[in-house]
Structures are given as C-alpha cells and as structure tokens.
Amino acid sequence: MRMRSKEFRSLVTSLARAGEEQEPRCPHTTMCGGCAFQDRRYSDQVAAKAEALNRLFASAEQLAPCLPAQPLEVVASPDPYAYRTRMDYVATKGRFGLRARGKFNYIVELETCHLIPPAAFAAAKTIWISATELGLPDYNLRTHEGFLRYVVVRRSPSDTLLLAVVTAEGAQYEPAMHALAQIALAQPGVVGFHWLLNASRTDLSFGTPVRSWGSETLLMRAGATELAIGPNTFFQNNVHLLERLLDDVRDAVIAAAVPGQALPTVGDLYGGVGTLALHLASHAANVMCVEAVAESAVLAARNAEAHGVTNVQAFAQEVLPFLQSSEASQLDLVVADPPRTGLGPEVCAELLRLAPARIVYVSCNPLTQIEDLQVLTRRYRVERMQGYDMFPHTPHVETMAILDLSA
Fold this sequence. Notes:
Blueprint: H1 5-17, H2 42-59, E1 74-75, E2 86-92, E3 95-100, E4 103-109, H3 118-133, E5 148-155, E6 161-167, H4 174-185, E7 190-197, E8 208-214, E9 218-222, E10 225-229, H5 242-255, E11 263-269, H6 275-280, E12 284-291, H7 294-306, E13 312-316, H8 319-324, E14 333-336, H9 345-354, E15 358-363, H10 366-376, E16 380-388, E17 398-405
Helix pairs in contact: 1-2, 3-4, 9-10
C-alpha cells in the first residue's frame, strides 16, 4: 500500500533519530521547527533518507517493476550548516524566530540560527529589533492585528544579502519603513531592501511589492552564470549542493544527445529565473524556459540577455497550456522541476503525447513524483533515480528521475 505524506515524514524521522547522537550546534534544536535532526550524525541522516526513499518507491507496487534494480542513493550536502539561500523569520507577539515543531502558532525566539551564516542572521534580527524601536508593531497570528509579519533573507553564494519585510496593510508606517530601509542597507553585505504587502489573513512570507531601496535584485551564482533573483522568486535553497544538482541535470541532458550533435530543442518546465535553462544553453540549439510566475519569467529573459545567451526563450505561461499548444516531437528533451504538487495527470498526459526522447524530472516531493511516474511509465522506462539532501536536519529530500522513451 502506498505511503502518505505524514507516514513518509514519520519514517524519515524514525530512521534519522535512530542514528548516532551528536552535540547540536544550536541551543534551540529541541524545539525549533527549522531543524529536526541536528542532534544526530549527519551521515546517519543521509543514510536514513536513502533508506526511506527506497522503501517509499518499493511500496508503489505498480511502479516498482519499472524502476532501476540498483538502490537509490542520496547525495549529501557538502556542508549541512549555513546552507540556505532563503530564510523566512516570523515576527509575532514580541518574538522573532521560527515556528516550534508541531505548533504552528508558537514561535521559538531565536538567539542564533545555523541555517544561514551568522552575519545574515544578525542582519535579519537587527531589522526586527530596529522595527520594534521605530514603532512598527508585530503581527499577531491569532488576532490578525499588527503590521510586521516576516523578515526574509535572500543570501547568495558570495554572502551578499537581499532583505525584505512582509507586512499587513499600514500606509501610516511609510516614514518608519524608510528609516528601516536605511538601517538594512547599512548592514554588512546587504545590497537591497524590499517592503512586501500581504494584506490577507493567509500566512504567507511572500507579498506584493510596495517599495524597494538599493538593488531590486540579488545576484546568485549558479555554475558559470550569475542569476538575478527577486524577493519573491523561487530558487533552489541549498547553496552548497546547487551546482552538483545542476551538473547532474546537465550530464543527463548531454547523455541523451547524438554524439557530436547538440540537442535541437530542450523544454525547461517550471523554469524559474532560468537557472537550468542557462546551465543547459550551450548543449542545445534552443531552450524553451516555461514559467507561470511573471516576475520570474521576466528575470529569466533578463538573465539570458545579461549573459549574451540568444538560444534561451522565456515563456511567461502555465506549463499545461504551453504543452497543449506544442506539436508532437517539438520538444526533443524535457527538464521539469515542478512545485510540491508535482506535474499532475494532465501535464503527464501531454508529455506522453509529445513524447520527448528523455525527461529529466527533479522533484521536491517524492510522493507526487511517484504518482506522475506511474503515468509516465506507460511509455517511458526509468533509467536512473538519485536523491539529494537539499535540506539537512529536516525530513525533506529531493529526487531526480531520468526517463527514456521506450522503443
């Protein structure tokens, strides 16, 4: 019987907690939801995730015969600390920090955080302290009163920072926000500061841009390219493991090409700001980067132009209608990195119709990936599976599946 999400998380947790104990770096690790296994040896965490993934895929009885015989392995993060490219810290009821494990409305007040470099955490906490001193009230998660909801850190591999605050409505606070921006820009490494509005009761650390100070974007190095990202744009969240993942996807693309020839057309689905598209551009005649979030699609086009790359086309469009309007055999190869909801049956059906020779499917949710693979294996065989520990000390794990069209 197929596992459910809660069961998979419980399996990863039980296997990881059976690992060898170690002294955690963070004093908050027993309560904070940011980390679950910091008190367990990292190599045991990685082994636990590999074991859990192999059990998960074996439990999908319909899919199991279509998978490679060799066990799936998980690539460890080169450094399990200070790895995140984005952190969202909650500001509520006089506390600054992260949610307690299993308690949505309880915030663990953080004095330190080892998920980002110390200077990045110090900058974020300075923003919260300064906001309080400037009279900007925290947002109350229960009563939905107040103003300041989140302090967001975007951090590049070179440790430059783009800071943002997500707020409720409050035009009267504009002078204080301007003063807060000047404090933010004075912090070491900070290149820009954004004010984002979330006027709904929905708890989101994203928002509509109100105003920005300094640089509007942050340059993120990914392989040989630098990509401009904004405060709302998606980007892989492990600065240490990103290049390995990009190279593995690139190698899977190269392996599908006829020796001595570039692949004519690669479809990069859910392409974000062009991270994979630009990494693949020199190996294909044309890369079609499809991204539904308009802000990200604009940045993808801008990033391609900044690097003088003329064979990457950015499409600000949902993936499904893009595929539905494509002709059979138009895409020679597809790379897909969908959100946690996966591709879904309709996108999978279109991929079966278009029949690219190879699909490289990167997933942040192995459970929805299984559902998609059960559809895709009607015409495809899974040549290889690989895991990536993009979120050390947590139950999360990413996977890459390489599928080839059956003869």
